[in-house]
Every structure is written in structure tokens, then in C-alpha cells.
UniProtKB/TrEMBL annotation, chain A:
SMART domains named in the record: WD40 (SM00320)
An example Gene Ontology CC term for this record: MWP complex
Pfam families: WD40 (PF00400)
InterPro entries assigned to the protein according to its UniProt record, in alphabetical order: Centrosome-WD_assoc (IPR052778), Quino_amine_DH_bsu (IPR011044), WD40/YVTN_repeat-like_dom_sf (IPR015943), WD40_rpt (IPR001680)
Protein name: WD repeat-containing protein WRAP73 isoform X3
Gene: WRAP73
Species for this entry: Delphinapterus leucas
UniProt cross-references to PANTHER family, sorted A to Z: WD REPEAT PROTEIN 8-RELATED, WD REPEAT-CONTAINING PROTEIN WRAP73
From TrEMBL, chain B:
Keyword Coiled coil tagged: yes
Keywords per UniProt: Cell adhesion, Cell junction, Coiled coil, Cytoplasm, Cytoskeleton
Coiled coil spans: 131-218, 376-448
Localization of this protein: Cell junction, Adherens junction; Cytoplasm, Cytoskeleton, Microtubule organizing center, Centrosome, Centriolar satellite
Protein's name in the database: Afadin- and alpha-actinin-binding protein isoform X5
Organism: Delphinapterus leucas
A Gene Ontology cellular-component term: ciliary basal body
GO BP terms in the entry: cell adhesion; intraciliary transport involved in cilium assembly
Protein family according to the UniProt entry: Belongs to the ADIP family.
Keyword Cytoplasm: yes
Renumbered residue ranges of the record's region Disordered: 292-317, 503-546
């Protein structure tokens, strides 16, 4: 595992958007948009916008980047191939609250203030399309995975509607009302044939519509109390996981659309079959200033033993043994300096900065729970996040009342497989798009990885605190972008064989 | 008091009777006595009782007192104090013996009385204490009764209270339920109200939005625009198409195509799953049938069983099974058949399993009992055995300890030797066993060896016969060739003569087929080979004079191969120098050597034959 850093002191990164083909992390620094190479973090392009960038998004083909300047009601589009090409969309007095690409990468959908309408701007022709009555809700726009269709939640005459549009020419294909009090979100199944629509949290209701607008099924688990909080489709479209405020995940099947099973999230785990990983607290506070530049010779000796220990103690299988490397970007360095520094840092980082491991706790384990404040809106209860692994085998969930834990369920056996309890609340987790490997961050200086083989945590090397607020996988699953408030870094997960070449490259570039 | 005594103490009944009699008498007596006393001793009233009693008999009233006593005693059943009167006129004499007897008896009686009195007193005491105890008990019980009564009242009170509480709780529950209902109603009403308000608000909001929309959008806002350097091509490279009815239809088509594809895909998956399930089902069925068919006979015997019919069904099913095509039919047509047959089989299987279970449980139960009995016996036997063993072991240990102690006194070297000895004892036994085993093996080996030698001899004979044949054949050839030494022919003759003599030994071998011979040669036992070596010098002469001499060297090489080197070498040397001589000279020496020599030459010839081409 190696880390690549982007340090912009006194600047802020709002978002790093990683994309499919080039995977060039783009970051924006107030007015400027910086596009870097995903392997080296070398700057590829630099664009200057008119105002502070509030949102950036790559087009599907990675040829364009959209920068939304909500305050000014502006969208600026940049081309990666032709740096001189630019496009500016002004929404004028209508204002702008959201902007996104259409799947073809040639249209931009802008939502005006108060959700008056959605404007579809084309980069190919001068045509502009308007979609009226979009609903302001949690997830009102969803494209099918093949990019053919757009489903849009609408609200007119106090009733919820869903419009299905064909993305190629923005023609309305279907328009139907949904039997909901207050539609909260819609989501296509990955196969693009079933649309799940769920009601607001006041009512537990999930509706499943076919592409042609037929209602396939309705599911309601209970009444009266708060309902659905999160919804996730399995990548095979076989299962629909519904997390709700009662702290349970219900899994529906795609044949009968009935519930297969119900996963509760109890605060105590009694089953000895369930592996509970607890983040160990005993890690000594890391003094990175001391570790960052160790004398190379001294470093080589004792580090080998610790490295072996690291490998031994980590649960990853042999060919995946993690190598921890670090390369830091510093613009002022000459190439030779950079190389020397890079090597030194590599040596330093091979030592896992603080080998904090998850210890396997023995059952029964009681997890730390939060008492929800009953008198506040949006109580911290229920299943806040759900994600299926790319191979459909696992489901990761987070219960907001047990914010420090991530629950991993085995979908093949329909049972709880493992629980990861961290020291602080889990901010974000994401599955590796290629394999069953979960990256978790808790807003601390570590990134945690889980795979069926075990669990590992890695301290992000660097000066000062690097608070990982969110993680984002490279589409190839080889690297991982870690985002803090004003920094981001890339974490490379390499096999041992790959280290040499990658390292060589690193040396060349730094 | 006398009555009470008779009742309570049956042990003293005879005595008491007597006593009661006595006492009853005494009851009366005091008065009479008293009256008499009064009468008799009216004067000395002032005197104490003792003096009064002592004054019972005085000088004057001896006669009277005697008579009185006599009377008294006779009334009590004592013999009279007087001698039997001989005549009426004669005065009766006092019989002293009788008096003494009476006195003694009275004294005895007195003692008895005293004893009885003591007994009675102790009994009285005992009874008194018993009485006290019982009274205490009674009092206690009374108290207990009182307390329990009180407790009961308390409990009743509590029960009543609890019932009251329960009633109250029920009431409360009812109230709560009502409350819940009410609250639910309230929630519902509020929800409707909220929804209504929301709708109203939303309408207002919509109106506002509409207005805003009009205001913002219809103003021909110059700002709403897009500035593009130049338009880019579509991602798919196509040009945008016009919106027409056609495109709409095409969109519909595409949508349905996608849906259809999806459904087809799902159908395929389901079909595959179905096929797999069918396969499993089929296999299960087959296995079931194969499992159940062996029992066919049994239920058949019990003809009244309904299973017979079912089994015939199974057979039918089995027949059906063979027609695989039925499985490919759609489920609807086969379903009923299938489910029925499966169900039937399942029922049979289930009943069978249950039967087995029952049997097993029965057997288990019986077996358990049997086992229990047996195990106890076994257990005892076993324990006895074990105890015996333990004792033996203990003895062994003792002896060993003794030995060790003895050894400790003796020198170190001795101890080691002795220790070795004690190991040797064990080892000796083992060795004996091994020795016997070894002996057996040896015997077996010897047997085998004998059989081998026999076989070798037989082989030798066979070879000889063959050689004879060969010789005759060669002779014929020689004769045919005609150009030959006289000596050689003589040799041959000689040889043939010898061979003829050897032929006598076993003519049966001679007739044996040739093919069998070769395999005898390589498997020849050492005995055989040693003979060969001895006879080797003879071989060249027999084999062929006609053939080239180079062959001789080959023979030698072959002989080397066949024989042990130590034996063959001297022979070889000798033979190489004087090959022909030996051959002539040695032949008449020993018949045996010649015979075996023949066989060897045959073998050699055979090998040579193999080698030559």
C-alpha cells in the first residue's frame, strides 16, 4: 500500500471525483480546477473558473469536467483533450442548486432553485430541454446503468409522479403516479428494468415499478413508526436491501418481491460464529516527524522484522501482502532530491506507521450504542448506510445507533458474518469495485480494509493529522483516494510483484 | 385407685388381682380393725399409734388376739393358726409352725406390696410427666392453630387486595388501550390534518412557483444562456435525430425489447434452475426406487399391506423414468404424476424409516437391558481380572524392588548386568517366539528348496532328452553332409550312447514338449548352476564341432554369466587353453556331469540361438 499525497495548505479541496477511464482525480482549489494523473498525482491540467467551485463532476467518458458554481448560478465545462475548449452555462435569475451529467457525457442537467425545473443543456446542439415539476427529494433523479433511461421524481398537484425519459432524445417514455404520501427517492435496479421508489420516513413503503410503468409490487414492513432510511440494490439486481429506522435491514427478492430475510442489528453479539473485529486502542501516538525522515541505513535493519510481523499479522493472503509506500509531492524539489526523498519515505512507510490491528474479540460482545434523542428530528437510529459487494456475496451496513460498527452480512448464507467495531464513528465505507474488499474511514488518520480473509487498518502517513473523511476506490480496485477536509491522498494497494515497477515509476516522476 | 391399677398394669394382673382382693379386703378391714382397735384399745387413746399397736397383744388378751388373728388370717385364706381339733371339747392348740409360716407369708406379701407400690409410684410419676408433656403439646398446637388462623386471614386479605389491584390494573390496561386507540386516532387525524395543510401549503407553494416561473422564465432572461466554443460531437458519433412519432414508437420498441430481454434472461435462468432441480429430483427418485425396491419382497409377503400397490406404482414409475422425455415435458402435464409418485415414495420411505426407528429403539431397549445384565457380569469378571493383574503387577514390582535393593547393595557393574538380565528375561521370551517363527520359516524354506531341486532335476532330465533329440538330428545332418572325420562320428556315437543311457533314467521327460524347457533355464536353482559349471568343460564337444570355434569363446562368456565367478574362472582358464581335450577327456569321467552337461549345453545352445540372430 502506498500513499500519494496532494498537499495544498490553506486551500480547500471540495471534492475529488474519480472516474472510470482515466481515473484522474480532479480537485478544486477555490477558483482553480486541478486535474492530476492518478498514478503520479502529477498535474495534467489546470483550469481557472469564474468563482469558487462548489461541485465538480466528470463526464462518463472522462473527456469533460463540469464545475458548478452554485452561488453564481453558473456551470463551467472543461475539456481534457482540448484545454482551450470551454463552455459556460448561465442559469440566470432562476438560480442553480444541482448540476449533473447525463450518462452520454454530452448533456448537463441543471436543477434551478426551488426545483422549478430541470434544464437539459446539450453540448452537441444548441437544443435545450426543460423538465417541469421535479421533486425536491433525497434522490429524485436516477439513470439506468446503461445510460438509456432517466427516471425522475415529480410532484404536481400534491401527488407524486415518476417520469421515465429516454436519454437519447429526452422524450417522455412513461409517466405514472406513485402511491406514496411523499416520495423520498427512486433507484433503478442495475439491470435497468425495475425501479424502486420509496416513501418518506414517515411511512414504511417501497414500491417496485417495471420499466413500462407497471406496479410490480409494494412492500410495507410495519406502520406508524418511522420507515425507510436507506435502500440498496445488489449488483445482480437480485436483491433489494431496505434499511429502516427500526434498525433492521430487510432483503427482498426479485422474483416475488417478498422479503427473504430480516437482519437485525443487536447491540450485543452472542453467536460465537460471528467474528467481531475491535479496533485496538493500545496504539501509541505516532510521531510522524520522527518517522518521516529516518536515516536510511538505520531504517533498513529493524524495519524488516517489523515488516514481516506486519505481514504475518495482517490477514491478507500472501500474494496480497500489503506493501506500504509513501511518496510525497513537493513541488519545489528537483528530480534527484525527490527521488532520494521518495526512497527514504518508502523505507519509512514500509513500516506500517502504527500497526494498529483489529483484535478479534470473543463473544459475547456488546457494542457501543447511542441513545437517540427522541425530541429531535432525524434521530440517530436506523440503518443509515447499505452497500452490496460487487460479487453480491456481502452486504455492509451501518446502524446509526451503533455508529462505530460496520456489519458485514453473508448474503449466500443470509447471516451475519463479521462486525467491525472502530474507535470512532464510521464516516463512510465503500466496496472495492472489483472484489469483496471494503474500505472504511472514521474521520481519523486511518483507513480500514476488510476482506473475507480478515481486517487491516493502515495509518495514513504524513505530517500532522490526515483526517480521512471519505474514501473512493479507483475503478480498477488498485488504488483508493482518501479525502480529508483540505487534502487528499491516493493509497495504492499493490501486490508484491507490482511494487517494483510502480516504485520505479514513482522515482521517475518525483 | 385399685381399679385404675388393674386396668393400667396388665403385667401385674395376677398379683394385682390378689392385691385387689387384698385391698378390697383391707378396705373393709380398717373399719373392723378400727372398731376392734377402738373396742380393744379404748383406754390408751392418749398413746401414740405405735404404742397402740404394740398394745395390740397383752398378757391378758393373748388368746383373744390369737383367735382374732386366726379369724383374720382364715378370712384372708391363710391356714388356721390352730391345730386341727380332735374333739370339740378339747381346746384348740396354737400351731407355731403355722404361725411362723403365716408370718413369713405376710412378710413376703408385705415386701411384694412395697415393690408394687414403688412401681406404681414410678409409673404415676411417668404418667404425670407424660401428661404434662401432652398438655404442653396441646398448648403449642393451640397456639399454632391460632397463628395459622391469623395467617390465613392475612393471606385472604392480601389475596383480596391483589384481586383488587388486578382489577385496577385491568381497568388501567383498558384505559391505556383506550388511550392508545385515542392517540392513534389523534395521530391519524393529525396526520390527515397535516397532510391537508401540507397540501394546502404545497398548493400555495406551487402557485408561487408557477408565478416565479412566469416571472423568471418569461422575462426573456438574457442571462440564461450557454456559451460554447464549439459544439462537440455526440459520444456515439451519431447525429441527433428529430423528434417525430417514429422516434416515440422506436423508443417504445426499444423499451419493450429491453424488458423482453430481461424477462428472457430471467426465464432462461429459471429454466436452468428448474432443469437442475429436475435432475436432482430425478436422481432422488432413482435412488429412492433403488432403495425401496429391495424391500419389495417383504411387503409382498404381507399381502394385506397397502404398500404392495404402491410398490407396483413405483415399478411403473421406474418404467416411466426410463422414458426421459417425460422430464422434458412441461411441468403441468407431469406435475401431478410426479408429485404423486414422489409423495408415495416419500410415504413409503417415511414409514420404512419409522419402522426402522422403532426397531432400532426396541433393539436398543432390549439390547440395553441385555447389555446391562451382561455388562454387570462382564464388569465383575473384568474387575476380578484386573484386580488379579494388579496383584500380579504389584508382586512383580515388589520382586523388582527387592532385586533393586539387592542390587543397590551390590556393585554398579553387577546392577547393570542384572538389569540387563531382567530385560533379557523379557527378550528371551520374545526371542523364543521369534526363534520358533524362524524355525517354521526355515522349514518352509527347506520345503521350497526341495521342491526346487526336484524341479531342477526334472529340468535337467528334460534338457538331456532334448539334447539327445538334437544330437540325433545333428547326427542326421552330419550323415547327410557325409564329409566327416571318423573320430567325430565316433564322438557323436559315443555321446549318443551316453545320452541313450541317460535317456533310460526318465523317458517321460524326453517326450516333453520343447517349449517348456527354456523357462526352466533361467529359473535354475543354485544347485543346478553349480552342476552346470562343473560340467561345462564337456559342453563344447557336445554342442558342435561342426560349428566355428569362435563359438567357444561365446560359450565361455555365457558360462561366466551363468555361474558364480569364483567357480567359473579356473574352469574357464583351463578350458580356454585346452578346449577340445577336456571335452573328450571329461566326458567319460562322470555320467552325471555329462548329463547335466548336456542340459547345460542345451541351455547354452538355446541362449546362443537367441544371441546369434
Amino acid at each position: 500500500m502506498s500513499f500519494l499525497f496532494s498537499h495544498h495548505r490553506s486551500m480547500s479541496i471540495y471534492e475529488a471525483s474519480l472516474h472510470l477511464q482515466n481515473f484522474k482525480p480532479a480537485s478544486c482549489v477555490q477558483y482553480r480546477l486541478v486535474v492530476r494523473d492518478a498514478n503520479t498525482l502529477q498535474i495534467c491540467q489546470l483550469y481557472t473558473c469564474l468563482d469558487q467551485i462548489q461541485h465538480i463532476e466528470w463526464s462518463a467518458d472522462s473527456l469533460f469536467i463540469l464545475c458548478a458554481l452554485y452561488k453564481r448560478g453558473l456551470v463551467q465545462v472543461w475539456s481534457l483533450e482540448q484545454p482551450e475548449w470551454h463552455c459556460k452555462i448561465d442559469e440566470g435569475s432562476a438560480g442553480l442548486v444541482a448540476s449533473c451529467w447525463s450518462p452520454d457525457g454530452r448533456h448537463i442537467l441543471n436543477t434551478t432553485e426551488f426545483h422549478l425545473r430541470i434544464t437539459v443543456w446539450s453540448l452537441c446542439t444548441k437544443s435545450v430541454s426543460y423538465i417541469k415539476y421535479p421533486k425536491a427529494c433525497q434522490q429524485g433523479i436516477t439513470f439506468t446503468r446503461d445510460g438509456r433511461y432517466l427516471a425522475l421524481a415529480e410532484r404536481r398537484d400534491c401527488k407524486d409522479y415518476v417520469s421515465i425519459l429516454v436519454c437519447s432524445d429526452w422524450q417522455l417514455l412513461r409517466h405514472f403516479d406513485t402511491d406514496t404520501q411523499d416520495l423520498a427517492g427512486i433507484e433503478w435496479a442495475p439491470n435497468g428494468c425495475v425501479l424502486a421508489a420509496w416513501d418518506s420516513c414517515l411511512e414504511y413503503k417501497i414500491l417496485l415499478y417495471s420499466l413500462d410503468g407497471r406496479l410490480l409490487s409494494t412492500f410495507c414492513a410495519y406502520e406508524w413508526s418511522l420507515g425507510i432510511k436507506s435502500v440498496a440494490w445488489s449488483p445482480s439486481s437480485q436483491f433489494l436491501a431496505v434499511g429502516s429506522y427500526d434498525g433492521k435491514v430487510r432483503i427482498l427478492n426479485h422474483v416475488t418481491w417478498k422479503m427473504i430475510t430480516e437482519f437485525g442489528h443487536p447491540a450485543t453479539i452472542n453467536n460465537p460464529k460471528i467474528v467481531v473485529y475491535k479496533e485496538a486502542e493500545k496504539s501509541p501516538p505516532l510521531v510522524l516527524g520522527r518517522l518521516a525522515f529516518p536515516p536510511p541505513r538505520a531504517a533498513a535493519g529493524p524495519l524488516s522484522s517489523t515488516e514481516s510481523e506486519w505481514r504475518q499479522r495482517s490477514h491478507w493472503d500472501g500474494h496480497q501482502a500489503l506493501q506500504c509506500r509513501l511518496a510525497r509531492r513537493s513541488s519545489g524539489n528537483t528530480a534527484s532530491q525527490g527521488r532520494a526523498q521518495g526512497q527514504a519515505l518508502c523505507a519509512a512507510a514500509k513500516f506500517p506507521p502504527s500497526p494498529v490491528f483489529h483484535e478479534v474479540a470473543s463473544v459475547p460482545v456488546s457494542l457501543q450504542t447511542l441513545k437517540p434523542a427522541a425530541d429531535r428530528a432525524n434521530p440517530r437510529i436506523g440503518i443509515g448506510a447499505l452497500a452490496f459487494s460487487p460479487d453480491n456475496c456481502f452486504l455492509a451496513t451501518r446502524s446509526d445507533s451503533v455508529p462505530t460498527a460496520v456489519w458485514i452480512w453473508d448474503i449466500q448464507k443470509l447471516r451475519l458474518l463479521a462486525v467491525l467495531e472502530q474507535l470512532s464513528a464510521v464516516r463512510c465505507f465503500q466496496w472495492d469495485p472489483r472484489q469483496a474488499r471494503l474500505a472504511i474511514c472514521t474521520g481519523g488518520g486511518k483507513v480500514y480494509l476488510w476482506s473475507p480473509a480478515g481486517c487491516v487498518s493502515v495509518q495514513v502517513p504524513g505530517e500532522g493529522d490526515f483526517q480521512v473523511l471519505s474514501v473512493c476506490w479507483h475503478p480498477s480496485g488498485d488504488s483508493l483516494a482518501l479525502l480529508s477536509k483540505d487534502h487528499f491522498c491516493l493509497c495504492f494497494l499493490e501486490t508484491e510483484q507490482g511494487v517494483g515497477t510502480a516504485f520505479g515509476q514513482r522515482g521517475d516522476h518525483t | 385407685m385399685g381399679d385404675w391399677m388393674t386396668v393400667t398394669d396388665p403385667g401385674l394382673s395376677s398379683e394385682s388381682k390378689y392385691i385387689s382382693q387384698y385391698t378390697s379386703e383391707t378396705k373393709m378391714s380398717p373399719s373392723s380393725l378400727y372398731s376392734q382397735q377402738v373396742l380393744c384399745s379404748s383406754i390408751p387413746l392418749s398413746k401414740n399409734v405405735h404404742s397402740f399397736f404394740s398394745a395390740f397383744c397383752t398378757e391378758e388378751n393373748i388368746e383373744q388376739s390369737i383367735s382374732y388373728l386366726d379369724q383374720e388370717l382364715t378370712t384372708f385364706g391363710f391356714p388356721s393358726l390352730y391345730e386341727e381339733s380332735k374333739g370339740k371339747e378339747t381346746k384348740r392348740e396354737l400351731n407355731i409352725v403355722a404361725v411362723l409360716n403365716c408370718m413369713n407369708e405376710l412378710l413376703v406379701l408385705q415386701r411384694k406390696n412395697l415393690l408394687a407400690q414403688e412401681n406404681v409410684e414410678t409409673q404415676n410419676l411417668k404418667l404425670g410427666s407424660d401428661m404434662d408433656h401432652l398438655q404442653n403439646c396441646y398448648a403449642k398446637l393451640k397456639e399454632q392453630l391460632e397463628t395459622s388462623r391469623r395467617e390465613m386471614i392475612g393471606l385472604q386479605e392480601r389475596d383480596r387486595q391483589l384481586q383488587c389491584k388486578n382489577r385496577n390494573l385491568h381497568q388501567l390496561l383498558k384505559n391505556e388501550k383506550d388511550e392508545v386507540q385515542k392517540l392513534q386516532n389523534i395521530i391519524a387525524s393529525r396526520a390527515t390534518q397535516y397532510n391537508h395543510d401540507m397540501k394546502r401549503k404545497e398548493r400555495e407553494y406551487n402557485k408561487l412557483k408557477e408565478r416565479l416561473h412566469q416571472l423568471v422564465m418569461n422575462k426573456k432572461d438574457k442571462k440564461i444562456a450557454m456559451e460554447v466554443l464549439n459544439y462537440v460531437g455526440r459520444a456515439d458519433g451519431k447525429r441527433g435525430s428529430w423528434r417525430t412519432g417514429k422516434t416515440e414508437a422506436r423508443n417504445e420498441d426499444e423499451m419493450y425489447k429491453i424488458l423482453l430481454n430481461d424477462y428472457e434472461y430471467r426465464q432462461k435462468q429459471i429454466l436452468m434452475e428448474n432443469a437442475e432441480l429436475k435432475k436432482v429430483l430425478q436422481q432422488m427418485k432413482k435412488e429412492m426406487i433403488s432403495l425401496l425396491s429391495p424391500q419389495k419382497q417383504k411387503p409382498r409377503e404381507r399381502a394385506d399391506d397397502s404398500t404392495g400397490t404402491v410398490i407396483s406404482d413405483i415399478e411403473e414409475d421406474a418404467g416411466e423414468l426410463s422414458r426421459e422425455s417425460t422430464w422434458d415435458l412441461s411441468c403441468e402435464t407431469v406435475r401431478e404424476q410426479l408429485t404423486n409418485s414422489i409423495r408415495k415414495q416419500w410415504r413409503i420411505l417415511k414409514s420404512h424409516v419409522e419402522k426402522l426407528d422403532n426397531q432400532v429403539s426396541k433393539v436398543h431397549l432390549e439390547g440395553f437391558n441385555d447389555e446391562d445384565v451382561i455388562s454387570r457380569q462382564d464388569h465383575e469378571q473384568e474387575t476380578e481380572k484386573l484386580e488379579l493383574e494388579i496383584q500380579q503387577c504389584k508382586e512383580m514390582i515388589k520382586t523388582q524392588q527387592q532385586l533393586l535393593q539387592q542390587l543397590a547393595t551390590a556393585g554398579d557393574d553387577d546392577t547393570t548386568s542384572l538389569l540387563r538380565d531382567c530385560y533379557l528375561l523379557e527378550e528371551k521370551e520374545r526371542l523364543k517366539e521369534e526363534w520358533s517363527l524362524f524355525k517354521e520359516q526355515k522349514k518352509n524354506f527347506e520345503k521350497e528348496r526341495r521342491s526346487f531341486t526336484e524341479a531342477a532335476i526334472r529340468l535337467g532330465l528334460e534338457r538331456k532328452a532334448f539334447e539327445e533329440e538334437r544330437a540325433s538330428w545333428l547326427k542326421q545332418q552330419f550323415l547327410n553332409m557325409t564329409t566327416f572325420d571318423h573320430q567325430n562320428s565316433e564322438n557323436v556315437k559315443l555321446f549318443s550312447a551316453f545320452s541313450g543311457s541317460s535317456d533310460w533314467d526318465n523317458p517321460t521327460v524326453h517326450s516333453r514338449p520343447r517349449q517348456k524347457k527354456p523357462h526352466g533355464a533361467p529359473s535354475g536353482s543354485p544347485v543346478c548352476t553349480s552342476k552346470l559349471t562343473k560340467s561345462l568343460p564337456a559342453s563344447p564337444s557336445t554342442s558342435d564341432f561342426c560349428q566355428t570355434r569362435s563359438c567357444v569363446s561365446e560359450y565361455s562368456s555365457i558360462s561366466v554369466l551363468n555361474t558364480a565367478p569364483e567357480e567359473s574362472k579356473p574352469n574357464q582358464v583351463g578350458r580356454e587353453c585346452t578346449n577340445q581335450k577336456w571335452s573328450v577327456a571329461s566326458r567319460p569321467d562322470s555320467q552325471e556331469g555329462c548329463c547335466s552337461g548336456c542340459s547345460s549345453t542345451h541351455a547354452d545352445a538355446h541362449i546362443e540361438k537367441d544371441d546369434l540372430p
